[in-house]
Write a structure and sequence with these properties.
Radius of gyration: 23 Å
Oligomer: single chain
Number of helices: 4
Shape: globular
Number of strands: 36
Low-confidence stretches: 1-35, 53-98, 179-183
Structural class: mainly beta
Distance between the termini: 34 Å
Helix content: under 10%
Mean pLDDT: 79
Strand content: 25-35%
Protein backbone atom coordinates (compact mmCIF):
# COMPACT_ATOMS: atom_id res chain seq x y z
CA UNK A 1 0.00 0.00 0.00
CA UNK A 2 1.33 3.45 -0.90
CA UNK A 3 0.13 6.47 0.99
CA UNK A 4 1.20 9.75 2.51
CA UNK A 5 1.18 9.75 6.31
CA UNK A 6 1.04 12.51 8.90
CA UNK A 7 4.72 12.76 9.81
CA UNK A 8 6.53 14.48 12.64
CA UNK A 9 9.36 15.83 10.51
CA UNK A 10 10.20 18.54 13.03
CA UNK A 11 13.92 18.36 12.39
CA UNK A 12 13.19 18.78 8.67
CA UNK A 13 11.91 22.27 9.42
CA UNK A 14 15.30 23.33 10.70
CA UNK A 15 16.92 21.71 7.68
CA UNK A 16 14.71 23.64 5.29
CA UNK A 17 15.37 26.91 7.09
CA UNK A 18 19.08 26.17 6.92
CA UNK A 19 18.73 25.56 3.21
CA UNK A 20 17.27 29.03 2.74
CA UNK A 21 20.10 30.51 4.75
CA UNK A 22 22.75 28.73 2.68
CA UNK A 23 21.20 29.61 -0.63
CA UNK A 24 20.68 33.23 0.33
CA UNK A 25 24.43 33.51 0.24
CA UNK A 26 24.34 32.71 -3.48
CA UNK A 27 22.43 35.94 -4.20
CA UNK A 28 21.29 36.69 -7.72
CA UNK A 29 18.05 36.80 -9.63
CA UNK A 30 15.43 34.31 -10.75
CA UNK A 31 17.23 34.00 -14.06
CA UNK A 32 20.41 33.03 -12.22
CA UNK A 33 18.40 30.54 -10.20
CA UNK A 34 17.43 28.77 -13.39
CA UNK A 35 21.09 28.13 -14.07
CA UNK A 36 21.60 26.30 -10.78
CA UNK A 37 22.41 22.66 -11.44
CA UNK A 38 21.42 19.50 -9.64
CA UNK A 39 25.08 19.07 -8.69
CA UNK A 40 25.16 22.51 -7.05
CA UNK A 41 22.01 21.71 -5.10
CA UNK A 42 23.57 18.47 -3.92
CA UNK A 43 26.49 20.39 -2.38
CA UNK A 44 24.55 23.35 -0.95
CA UNK A 45 21.31 21.83 0.32
CA UNK A 46 21.51 20.57 3.94
CA UNK A 47 21.55 16.87 4.68
CA UNK A 48 18.15 15.24 5.24
CA UNK A 49 16.93 14.97 8.85
CA UNK A 50 17.80 11.71 10.54
CA UNK A 51 14.25 11.00 11.72
CA UNK A 52 10.76 11.67 10.48
CA UNK A 53 8.59 9.47 12.69
CA UNK A 54 4.85 9.25 12.30
CA UNK A 55 2.94 10.81 15.19
CA UNK A 56 -0.77 11.18 15.77
CA UNK A 57 -0.09 14.29 17.85
CA UNK A 58 1.88 16.06 15.12
CA UNK A 59 0.06 18.90 13.39
CA UNK A 60 2.13 20.08 10.40
CA UNK A 61 -0.10 23.14 9.99
CA UNK A 62 1.40 24.55 13.20
CA UNK A 63 4.92 24.40 11.79
CA UNK A 64 5.85 27.18 9.45
CA UNK A 65 8.66 29.19 7.99
CA UNK A 66 8.23 32.84 6.99
CA UNK A 67 5.96 32.97 3.99
CA UNK A 68 5.37 29.24 3.86
CA UNK A 69 3.49 26.43 5.50
CA UNK A 70 3.90 22.69 5.64
CA UNK A 71 1.85 20.34 3.59
CA UNK A 72 -0.17 18.09 5.87
CA UNK A 73 0.62 14.46 5.14
CA UNK A 74 -2.32 12.85 3.41
CA UNK A 75 -3.38 9.20 3.34
CA UNK A 76 -3.57 8.78 -0.43
CA UNK A 77 -1.14 8.97 -3.33
CA UNK A 78 -2.34 12.33 -4.57
CA UNK A 79 -1.91 15.51 -2.54
CA UNK A 80 -3.37 18.89 -3.48
CA UNK A 81 -2.00 22.05 -1.92
CA UNK A 82 -4.73 24.48 -0.98
CA UNK A 83 -2.58 27.50 -0.23
CA UNK A 84 0.00 29.21 -2.40
CA UNK A 85 2.10 29.59 0.75
CA UNK A 86 2.92 25.90 0.55
CA UNK A 87 5.79 27.05 -1.65
CA UNK A 88 8.01 30.04 -0.92
CA UNK A 89 7.71 32.27 -3.94
CA UNK A 90 10.95 33.77 -5.29
CA UNK A 91 9.33 37.20 -5.57
CA UNK A 92 7.77 37.19 -2.11
CA UNK A 93 9.45 39.00 0.79
CA UNK A 94 10.33 35.67 2.39
CA UNK A 95 11.71 34.32 -0.87
CA UNK A 96 13.85 37.28 -1.89
CA UNK A 97 17.56 36.60 -2.14
CA UNK A 98 17.09 32.85 -2.48
CA UNK A 99 18.87 32.77 -5.82
CA UNK A 100 15.44 32.89 -7.43
CA UNK A 101 14.48 29.53 -5.95
CA UNK A 102 11.31 28.43 -4.22
CA UNK A 103 11.33 25.31 -2.05
CA UNK A 104 8.87 22.85 -0.60
CA UNK A 105 9.68 19.75 1.44
CA UNK A 106 7.45 16.66 1.77
CA UNK A 107 7.56 13.51 3.86
CA UNK A 108 5.94 10.49 2.23
CA UNK A 109 5.24 7.24 4.02
CA UNK A 110 5.55 3.97 2.10
CA UNK A 111 3.87 1.11 3.92
CA UNK A 112 4.17 -2.53 2.87
CA UNK A 113 5.44 -1.27 -0.44
CA UNK A 114 7.99 -2.42 -2.98
CA UNK A 115 8.44 -0.52 -6.26
CA UNK A 116 8.58 0.42 -8.97
CA UNK A 117 7.00 3.85 -8.77
CA UNK A 118 7.19 7.36 -10.14
CA UNK A 119 6.52 10.90 -8.93
CA UNK A 120 4.12 13.05 -10.92
CA UNK A 121 4.27 16.79 -10.20
CA UNK A 122 1.40 19.01 -11.34
CA UNK A 123 1.87 22.78 -11.62
CA UNK A 124 -1.50 23.74 -13.06
CA UNK A 125 -1.84 26.17 -15.92
CA UNK A 126 1.81 27.30 -15.80
CA UNK A 127 4.18 24.31 -15.62
CA UNK A 128 7.84 25.12 -15.03
CA UNK A 129 10.08 25.70 -17.99
CA UNK A 130 12.55 22.91 -18.78
CA UNK A 131 15.56 23.11 -16.52
CA UNK A 132 13.87 25.30 -13.92
CA UNK A 133 12.62 22.60 -11.54
CA UNK A 134 14.64 20.09 -9.55
CA UNK A 135 13.46 17.21 -7.38
CA UNK A 136 15.48 15.90 -4.46
CA UNK A 137 14.85 12.45 -2.99
CA UNK A 138 16.29 10.90 0.15
CA UNK A 139 15.73 8.52 3.01
CA UNK A 140 16.05 10.13 6.46
CA UNK A 141 19.72 10.47 7.35
CA UNK A 142 20.91 9.59 3.84
CA UNK A 143 22.13 11.94 1.15
CA UNK A 144 19.91 13.88 -1.24
CA UNK A 145 19.88 12.90 -4.89
CA UNK A 146 18.72 15.74 -7.15
CA UNK A 147 17.29 15.34 -10.64
CA UNK A 148 16.01 17.90 -13.13
CA UNK A 149 12.31 17.52 -13.78
CA UNK A 150 11.72 16.41 -17.38
CA UNK A 151 9.26 18.14 -19.67
CA UNK A 152 6.45 15.72 -18.85
CA UNK A 153 6.73 16.38 -15.06
CA UNK A 154 7.04 12.64 -14.42
CA UNK A 155 10.12 11.20 -12.73
CA UNK A 156 10.77 7.52 -12.34
CA UNK A 157 12.20 6.53 -8.98
CA UNK A 158 14.64 4.39 -10.95
CA UNK A 159 16.48 7.59 -11.81
CA UNK A 160 17.35 8.28 -8.16
CA UNK A 161 20.52 6.43 -7.21
CA UNK A 162 20.07 6.03 -3.42
CA UNK A 163 16.40 5.09 -3.50
CA UNK A 164 15.33 1.56 -2.62
CA UNK A 165 11.86 0.16 -3.15
CA UNK A 166 10.78 -0.75 0.35
CA UNK A 167 8.65 0.53 3.20
CA UNK A 168 9.52 3.59 5.23
CA UNK A 169 9.74 7.35 5.03
CA UNK A 170 10.79 9.02 1.81
CA UNK A 171 11.67 12.73 1.80
CA UNK A 172 10.92 14.76 -1.32
CA UNK A 173 12.23 18.30 -1.86
CA UNK A 174 11.12 20.53 -4.75
CA UNK A 175 13.23 23.46 -5.96
CA UNK A 176 11.68 25.84 -8.49
CA UNK A 177 13.28 28.81 -10.20
CA UNK A 178 11.79 31.71 -12.08
CA UNK A 179 9.34 34.17 -10.58
CA UNK A 180 6.54 33.00 -12.89
CA UNK A 181 6.60 29.55 -11.29
CA UNK A 182 4.83 29.94 -7.96
CA UNK A 183 2.33 27.15 -7.56
CA UNK A 184 2.70 23.45 -7.14
CA UNK A 185 -0.85 22.33 -6.49
CA UNK A 186 -0.48 18.56 -6.45
CA UNK A 187 1.94 15.71 -6.69
CA UNK A 188 1.50 11.98 -6.79
CA UNK A 189 3.80 9.19 -5.71
CA UNK A 190 3.28 5.85 -7.39
CA UNK A 191 1.33 4.83 -10.48
CA UNK A 192 -1.22 7.39 -11.62
CA UNK A 193 -4.53 6.86 -9.83
CA UNK A 194 -7.43 5.86 -12.02
CA UNK A 195 -10.95 6.57 -10.70
CA UNK A 196 -11.24 3.15 -9.13
CA UNK A 197 -8.10 3.80 -7.11
CA UNK A 198 -9.62 6.64 -5.09
CA UNK A 199 -10.23 5.07 -1.65
CA UNK A 200 -13.98 5.61 -1.67
CA UNK A 201 -14.38 2.59 0.59
CA UNK A 202 -13.31 4.86 3.47
CA UNK A 203 -16.38 7.10 3.01
CA UNK A 204 -19.29 6.33 5.33
CA UNK A 205 -22.87 7.38 4.51
CA UNK A 206 -26.33 6.73 5.95
CA UNK A 207 -27.97 3.43 5.05
CA UNK A 208 -29.09 3.23 1.44
CA UNK A 209 -26.61 5.82 0.16
CA UNK A 210 -23.53 5.10 -1.96
CA UNK A 211 -20.69 7.15 -3.42
CA UNK A 212 -18.97 6.77 -6.77
CA UNK A 213 -16.54 8.75 -8.90
CA UNK A 214 -18.29 11.11 -11.32
CA UNK A 215 -15.17 12.72 -12.83
CA UNK A 216 -11.42 12.27 -12.29
CA UNK A 217 -8.93 13.81 -12.51
CA UNK A 218 -10.27 17.35 -12.16
CA UNK A 219 -7.25 19.00 -10.49
CA UNK A 220 -8.09 21.48 -7.73
CA UNK A 221 -11.85 21.22 -8.37
CA UNK A 222 -13.80 23.92 -6.52
CA UNK A 223 -17.28 25.41 -7.18
CA UNK A 224 -19.72 23.76 -9.59
CA UNK A 225 -22.74 24.72 -11.68
CA UNK A 226 -24.82 22.93 -14.30
CA UNK A 227 -26.05 24.22 -17.64
CA UNK A 228 -29.44 23.31 -19.07
CA UNK A 229 -27.74 21.01 -21.61
CA UNK A 230 -26.31 18.90 -18.78
CA UNK A 231 -22.73 20.22 -18.83
CA UNK A 232 -21.22 20.69 -15.40
CA UNK A 233 -18.74 23.57 -15.11
CA UNK A 234 -16.13 23.49 -12.38
CA UNK A 235 -13.92 26.31 -11.15
CA UNK A 236 -10.55 25.94 -9.47
CA UNK A 237 -8.31 28.01 -7.30
CA UNK A 238 -4.55 27.52 -7.61
CA UNK A 239 -4.97 25.56 -10.85
CA UNK A 240 -6.20 28.74 -12.55
CA UNK A 241 -8.55 26.89 -14.94
CA UNK A 242 -12.26 26.34 -15.56
CA UNK A 243 -13.43 22.87 -16.59
CA UNK A 244 -16.40 21.56 -18.54
CA UNK A 245 -17.61 18.02 -17.71
CA UNK A 246 -19.97 16.12 -20.01
CA UNK A 247 -21.79 12.86 -19.30
CA UNK A 248 -22.97 12.08 -22.83
CA UNK A 249 -24.78 8.83 -22.03
CA UNK A 250 -26.29 10.10 -18.74
CA UNK A 251 -25.05 7.09 -16.79
CA UNK A 252 -23.75 9.06 -13.81
CA UNK A 253 -20.11 8.91 -14.94
CA UNK A 254 -18.48 11.83 -16.74
CA UNK A 255 -17.24 11.08 -20.27
CA UNK A 256 -15.22 14.17 -21.13
CA UNK A 257 -13.16 16.76 -19.24
CA UNK A 258 -12.32 19.95 -21.14
CA UNK A 259 -10.54 23.13 -20.07
CA UNK A 260 -12.54 26.15 -21.28
CA UNK A 261 -10.42 28.87 -19.62
CA UNK A 262 -6.89 28.92 -18.21
CA UNK A 263 -4.37 31.32 -16.73
CA UNK A 264 -7.04 32.97 -14.54
CA UNK A 265 -6.30 34.35 -11.07
CA UNK A 266 -8.17 31.85 -8.84
CA UNK A 267 -11.36 31.27 -10.86
CA UNK A 268 -13.28 29.62 -8.02
CA UNK A 269 -16.87 30.65 -8.82
CA UNK A 270 -18.83 29.58 -11.91
CA UNK A 271 -22.41 30.01 -13.08
CA UNK A 272 -24.34 29.98 -16.36
CA UNK A 273 -26.99 32.47 -17.47
CA UNK A 274 -28.75 32.56 -20.83
CA UNK A 275 -26.17 30.20 -22.31
CA UNK A 276 -23.19 32.30 -21.20
CA UNK A 277 -20.61 31.05 -18.69
CA UNK A 278 -19.56 33.51 -15.98
CA UNK A 279 -16.64 32.91 -13.66
CA UNK A 280 -14.80 34.87 -11.02
CA UNK A 281 -11.23 35.95 -10.46
CA UNK A 282 -9.79 37.70 -7.42
CA UNK A 283 -10.89 41.16 -8.56
CA UNK A 284 -12.96 40.46 -11.66
CA UNK A 285 -15.87 38.70 -13.32
CA UNK A 286 -15.37 37.11 -16.76
CA UNK A 287 -17.76 35.74 -19.37
CA UNK A 288 -17.57 33.30 -22.27
CA UNK A 289 -20.63 33.87 -24.44
CA UNK A 290 -22.48 30.92 -25.93
CA UNK A 291 -20.29 28.55 -23.93
CA UNK A 292 -21.78 25.35 -25.38
CA UNK A 293 -20.21 26.26 -28.73
CA UNK A 294 -16.79 26.82 -27.16
CA UNK A 295 -16.16 23.72 -25.06
CA UNK A 296 -14.14 21.99 -27.77
CA UNK A 297 -12.82 25.23 -29.26
CA UNK A 298 -12.26 27.57 -26.26
CA UNK A 299 -12.82 31.28 -26.77
CA UNK A 300 -10.96 34.09 -25.04
CA UNK A 301 -12.89 35.16 -21.90
CA UNK A 302 -14.39 38.65 -21.89
CA UNK A 303 -13.74 40.86 -18.87
CA UNK A 304 -17.17 41.88 -17.61
CA UNK A 305 -16.19 43.77 -14.45
CA UNK A 306 -12.74 44.35 -13.00
CA UNK A 307 -13.10 46.62 -9.98
CA UNK A 308 -13.49 44.25 -7.05
CA UNK A 309 -10.69 44.46 -4.44
CA UNK A 310 -7.34 42.92 -5.42
CA UNK A 311 -6.36 41.43 -2.03
CA UNK A 312 -5.58 37.73 -2.29
CA UNK A 313 -6.50 37.00 1.35
CA UNK A 314 -10.09 35.68 1.17
CA UNK A 315 -10.20 37.17 -2.30
CA UNK A 316 -11.43 34.06 -4.15
CA UNK A 317 -15.12 34.24 -4.94
CA UNK A 318 -18.09 31.88 -5.16
CA UNK A 319 -20.69 33.45 -7.48
CA UNK A 320 -24.33 32.67 -8.26
CA UNK A 321 -27.17 34.21 -10.21
CA UNK A 322 -30.20 34.64 -7.96
CA UNK A 323 -33.85 33.85 -8.71
CA UNK A 324 -34.35 37.34 -10.18
CA UNK A 325 -31.36 37.01 -12.53
CA UNK A 326 -28.96 39.20 -10.54
CA UNK A 327 -25.37 38.11 -9.91
CA UNK A 328 -24.34 37.78 -6.26
CA UNK A 329 -20.63 38.12 -5.43
CA UNK A 330 -19.05 38.00 -1.95
CA UNK A 331 -16.04 40.06 -0.86
CA UNK A 332 -14.13 38.42 1.98
CA UNK A 333 -12.29 40.14 4.82
CA UNK A 334 -8.66 40.82 3.75
CA UNK A 335 -7.36 39.37 7.02
CA UNK A 336 -8.06 36.90 9.80
CA UNK A 337 -9.64 39.50 12.10
CA UNK A 338 -9.93 43.21 11.28
CA UNK A 339 -12.47 45.92 10.56
CA UNK A 340 -11.54 46.96 7.04
CA UNK A 341 -14.88 48.63 6.25
CA UNK A 342 -16.67 48.53 2.93
CA UNK A 343 -16.42 46.87 0.50
CA UNK A 344 -14.95 44.04 2.58
CA UNK A 345 -16.63 41.28 4.62
CA UNK A 346 -19.93 41.41 2.75
CA UNK A 347 -22.10 40.01 -0.01
CA UNK A 348 -22.70 42.19 -3.05
CA UNK A 349 -25.44 42.07 -5.68
CA UNK A 350 -24.33 43.32 -9.08
CA UNK A 351 -26.39 45.77 -11.11
CA UNK A 352 -28.28 44.48 -14.14
CA UNK A 353 -25.59 45.82 -16.48
CA UNK A 354 -22.87 44.19 -14.32
CA UNK A 355 -21.02 47.52 -14.08
CA UNK A 356 -21.43 48.06 -10.35
CA UNK A 357 -22.94 46.52 -7.25
CA UNK A 358 -24.87 47.11 -4.04
CA UNK A 359 -23.91 45.65 -0.68
CA UNK A 360 -26.80 43.55 0.61
CA UNK A 361 -25.27 42.13 3.82
CA UNK A 362 -22.28 42.94 6.03
CA UNK A 363 -20.31 41.35 8.84
CA UNK A 364 -19.48 38.20 6.85
CA UNK A 365 -15.86 37.12 7.24
CA UNK A 366 -15.74 34.88 4.17
CA UNK A 367 -18.57 33.04 2.46
CA UNK A 368 -17.72 30.56 -0.29
CA UNK A 369 -21.17 29.11 -0.77
CA UNK A 370 -24.80 30.24 -0.81
CA UNK A 371 -28.22 29.20 -2.10
CA UNK A 372 -31.84 30.43 -2.07
CA UNK A 373 -34.49 28.65 -0.04
CA UNK A 374 -36.81 26.84 -2.47
CA UNK A 375 -39.96 28.05 -0.65
CA UNK A 376 -39.18 31.46 0.88
CA UNK A 377 -36.61 32.59 -1.69
CA UNK A 378 -34.37 33.89 1.13
CA UNK A 379 -30.61 33.74 0.71
CA UNK A 380 -28.73 31.32 3.00
CA UNK A 381 -24.93 31.18 3.13
CA UNK A 382 -21.97 29.61 4.92
CA UNK A 383 -19.39 31.72 6.74
CA UNK A 384 -15.90 30.74 7.86
CA UNK A 385 -15.19 31.66 11.49
CA UNK A 386 -12.07 33.52 12.54
CA UNK A 387 -8.82 31.64 13.26
CA UNK A 388 -6.38 31.71 16.17
CA UNK A 389 -8.84 32.14 19.01
CA UNK A 390 -7.04 30.43 21.87
CA UNK A 391 -6.54 26.68 22.29
CA UNK A 392 -9.13 24.49 20.68
CA UNK A 393 -8.69 20.96 21.91
CA UNK A 394 -11.19 18.19 22.11
CA UNK A 395 -13.55 18.61 25.04
CA UNK A 396 -12.56 22.19 25.82
CA UNK A 397 -13.13 25.43 23.95
CA UNK A 398 -15.25 25.79 20.85
CA UNK A 399 -14.22 29.24 19.69
CA UNK A 400 -15.63 30.28 17.40
CA UNK A 401 -17.99 28.06 15.41
CA UNK A 402 -18.32 28.49 11.68
CA UNK A 403 -21.83 29.49 10.61
CA UNK A 404 -24.83 28.85 8.40
CA UNK A 405 -26.72 32.13 8.04
CA UNK A 406 -29.99 33.36 6.56
CA UNK A 407 -30.78 36.84 5.24
CA UNK A 408 -34.21 37.69 6.65
CA UNK A 409 -36.28 39.30 3.89
CA UNK A 410 -37.65 41.72 6.50
CA UNK A 411 -34.16 43.04 7.34
CA UNK A 412 -33.11 45.68 4.85
CA UNK A 413 -29.52 45.97 6.09
CA UNK A 414 -28.42 42.81 7.92
CA UNK A 415 -25.08 42.63 9.71
CA UNK A 416 -23.83 39.21 10.83
CA UNK A 417 -21.42 40.36 13.50
CA UNK A 418 -17.91 40.04 12.13
CA UNK A 419 -15.49 41.22 13.53
CA UNK A 420 -17.40 42.11 16.72
CA UNK A 421 -19.32 38.90 17.44
CA UNK A 422 -19.09 35.32 16.24
CA UNK A 423 -21.44 32.35 16.39
CA UNK A 424 -24.22 32.82 18.93
CA UNK A 425 -23.22 36.34 20.03
CA UNK A 426 -19.74 35.36 21.27
CA UNK A 427 -17.76 38.62 21.60
CA UNK A 428 -14.39 38.71 19.92
CA UNK A 429 -11.60 38.28 22.50
CA UNK A 430 -9.87 41.43 21.22
CA UNK A 431 -11.60 44.40 22.91
CA UNK A 432 -10.79 46.69 19.99
CA UNK A 433 -13.49 44.81 18.08
CA UNK A 434 -16.01 43.88 20.78
CA UNK A 435 -15.86 46.57 23.46
CA UNK A 436 -19.01 48.69 23.56
CA UNK A 437 -20.82 46.59 20.94
CA UNK A 438 -24.34 45.30 21.52
CA UNK A 439 -24.99 41.71 20.30
CA UNK A 440 -28.64 42.60 19.72
CA UNK A 441 -27.51 44.75 16.80
CA UNK A 442 -26.27 41.71 14.87
CA UNK A 443 -27.88 38.65 13.32
CA UNK A 444 -27.13 35.24 14.80
CA UNK A 445 -26.65 32.17 12.60
CA UNK A 446 -29.44 29.75 11.75
CA UNK A 447 -27.02 27.00 12.79
CA UNK A 448 -23.58 27.22 14.42
CA UNK A 449 -21.32 24.69 12.70
CA UNK A 450 -18.17 22.92 13.88
CA UNK A 451 -15.15 24.93 14.97
CA UNK A 452 -12.88 25.80 12.04
CA UNK A 453 -14.55 23.22 9.79
CA UNK A 454 -14.27 25.69 6.86
CA UNK A 455 -17.79 25.35 5.40
CA UNK A 456 -17.72 26.15 1.70
CA UNK A 457 -20.38 25.14 -0.82
CA UNK A 458 -23.99 24.56 0.30
CA UNK A 459 -27.24 23.66 -1.43
CA UNK A 460 -30.83 23.02 -0.45
CA UNK A 461 -31.84 19.52 -1.44
CA UNK A 462 -34.61 19.77 -4.03
CA UNK A 463 -34.22 16.42 -5.77
CA UNK A 464 -36.51 13.40 -5.72
CA UNK A 465 -33.96 10.59 -5.29
CA UNK A 466 -33.25 10.91 -1.56
CA UNK A 467 -35.84 10.01 1.12
CA UNK A 468 -38.63 12.54 1.61
CA UNK A 469 -37.30 13.87 4.91
CA UNK A 470 -34.26 15.28 3.08
CA UNK A 471 -36.44 17.68 1.10
CA UNK A 472 -35.52 21.31 1.80
CA UNK A 473 -32.58 20.40 4.05
CA UNK A 474 -29.12 21.90 3.54
CA UNK A 475 -26.01 19.98 2.47
CA UNK A 476 -22.69 21.66 3.30
CA UNK A 477 -19.21 20.77 2.02
CA UNK A 478 -16.83 21.26 4.95
CA UNK A 479 -13.29 21.69 3.68
CA UNK A 480 -11.68 21.00 7.06
CA UNK A 481 -9.72 22.85 9.73
CA UNK A 482 -6.12 23.92 9.43
CA UNK A 483 -5.49 25.29 12.94
CA UNK A 484 -7.54 23.04 15.16
CA UNK A 485 -6.46 20.15 17.39
CA UNK A 486 -7.77 17.61 16.69
CA UNK A 487 -8.50 18.43 13.04
CA UNK A 488 -12.18 18.67 12.17
CA UNK A 489 -14.09 18.70 8.90
CA UNK A 490 -13.23 17.18 5.51
CA UNK A 491 -16.81 15.93 5.31
CA UNK A 492 -20.32 16.70 4.04
CA UNK A 493 -22.86 17.68 6.68
CA UNK A 494 -26.63 18.06 6.73
CA UNK A 495 -28.65 20.79 8.42
CA UNK A 496 -32.27 19.82 8.95
CA UNK A 497 -34.45 22.84 8.19
CA UNK A 498 -37.49 23.28 10.40
CA UNK A 499 -41.01 23.35 8.97
CA UNK A 500 -41.00 27.13 9.45
CA UNK A 501 -38.25 27.29 6.77
CA UNK A 502 -36.30 29.71 8.94
CA UNK A 503 -34.62 27.70 11.69
CA UNK A 504 -32.57 24.55 12.13
CA UNK A 505 -33.83 21.23 13.45
CA UNK A 506 -30.36 19.75 13.78
CA UNK A 507 -26.84 19.52 12.36
CA UNK A 508 -25.31 16.14 11.57
CA UNK A 509 -22.61 14.40 9.58
CA UNK A 510 -23.84 13.02 6.25
CA UNK A 511 -20.63 11.77 4.59
CA UNK A 512 -17.18 11.39 6.14
CA UNK A 513 -14.00 9.39 5.69
CA UNK A 514 -11.76 11.75 3.72
CA UNK A 515 -9.83 12.24 7.00
CA UNK A 516 -8.13 9.43 8.91
CA UNK A 517 -7.69 8.93 12.65
CA UNK A 518 -4.40 10.84 12.62
CA UNK A 519 -5.93 13.92 10.99
CA UNK A 520 -4.37 13.16 7.59
CA UNK A 521 -6.64 13.73 4.62
CA UNK A 522 -6.78 12.19 1.19
CA UNK A 523 -9.54 14.58 0.11
CA UNK A 524 -11.31 17.81 1.06
CA UNK A 525 -14.91 18.49 -0.05
CA UNK A 526 -15.47 21.96 -1.51
CA UNK A 527 -18.90 22.23 -3.14
CA UNK A 528 -22.14 20.29 -3.57
CA UNK A 529 -24.56 20.29 -6.48
CA UNK A 530 -27.99 18.64 -6.79
CA UNK A 531 -28.38 16.94 -10.18
CA UNK A 532 -31.67 16.56 -12.12
CA UNK A 533 -31.91 12.89 -11.18
CA UNK A 534 -31.58 13.84 -7.50
CA UNK A 535 -28.01 12.63 -7.02
CA UNK A 536 -25.60 14.92 -5.15
CA UNK A 537 -22.26 15.86 -6.71
CA UNK A 538 -19.38 16.72 -4.36
CA UNK A 539 -16.19 18.43 -5.57
CA UNK A 540 -12.81 17.75 -3.94
CA UNK A 541 -9.88 20.08 -4.61
CA UNK A 542 -7.33 17.90 -2.85
CA UNK A 543 -8.00 14.59 -4.58
CA UNK A 544 -8.91 16.48 -7.76
CA UNK A 545 -12.21 14.65 -8.18
CA UNK A 546 -15.98 15.00 -8.42
CA UNK A 547 -18.03 12.37 -6.57
CA UNK A 548 -21.64 11.30 -7.05
CA UNK A 549 -23.72 10.36 -4.00
CA UNK A 550 -26.89 8.43 -4.82
CA UNK A 551 -29.63 6.63 -2.92
CA UNK A 552 -31.33 3.31 -3.53
CA UNK A 553 -33.91 1.51 -1.39
Amino acid sequence: MLRNGTLAAISALAALAAAFSLLQGCGGSAAQGAALSAAQLATSFPAPPTEAPRSAAFDPANLSVPGGEWDQGQPAGRVSLEHNEAILSPDSPAGSGLNGLAFCLYSVLLEDYSGPASIDFNFGAAPPAPGSCFIGLARPGQRWDWQALPDDTLLSLDSFAPYTYDSGVMLVAVALSGSAVKRLYSFQVGPYQEPGDLPLETITLPAGFSISTYAYPVPNARAMCRDSDGTVYVGSRSAGVVYALRDFDLNGVNDDISVVASGINEPVGVDVKDGDLYFSAISAIYRISDIAQHIDEPAAPELVYGSYPTEQHHGWKFIRFGPQGQLFVPVGAPCNICDAGDPYANITRMHADLQGYDIIARGIRNTVGFDWHPVTGELWFTDNGRDEWGPDTEGTSNNPPCELNRIDSADASPHFGYPHFHGMSQPDPDPQFSAGENPADYSEPVQPLGTHVAPLGMRFYTGSMFPADYQGDVFIAEHGSWNRTPPLGARVTRVRVNADNETSDGYEIFAEGWQDEFGGRWGRPVDVLVMPDGALLVSDDQAGAIYRISYSQ
